[in-house]
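HUMAN:
Sorry, I am quite new to this. Are you able to go through these amino acid letters and fold codes? The numbers rather puzzle me.
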Amino acid sequence: MPSVTKEVFITAPLKEIFDYAKIPSNLPQIWPSLVEINNEKLLDNGGYCFQWKYKMSGITFKGAGEYTDIVPNLWLISNTHGDIESTHTWTFRFRDNKTRVTLTVDYRLPTQLVKRLGVFTLVKNEKEAELILYNLWMKFESRAKEN
């Protein structure tokens, strides 16, 4: 199962970043290939279950996800199933006025995508993880500059 891990340091309060990242419907704002989140429902563990639509290389994938483990202001773990099976682990640490956000994605590639794009898919997923964190950084860094 391929895995991607990326991290970013953001000059913003950890709680604000965590509270933003924990809501699945916020993710399409920072996740370029994540087309849609719907049917979002709050769970007893403080996380969410939801349905998702994702588009990569012209192919649309659909499925459902659920936050299986959540510790406020420390980490979020969500699992998706459907056309793409994956585990997303977000960790958050605050030090020296910066929040370190680490995103790890473990995933199983759909056969149709592997046949179509091969190893390019792995490279694309690395770049996408970087872009997700860059977009998160931009969202909070631009907010800090406005204040």
Notes: The chain has a mean pLDDT of 89. The first helix runs from residue 14 to 21. Helices lie at 14-21, 111-117, 120-146.
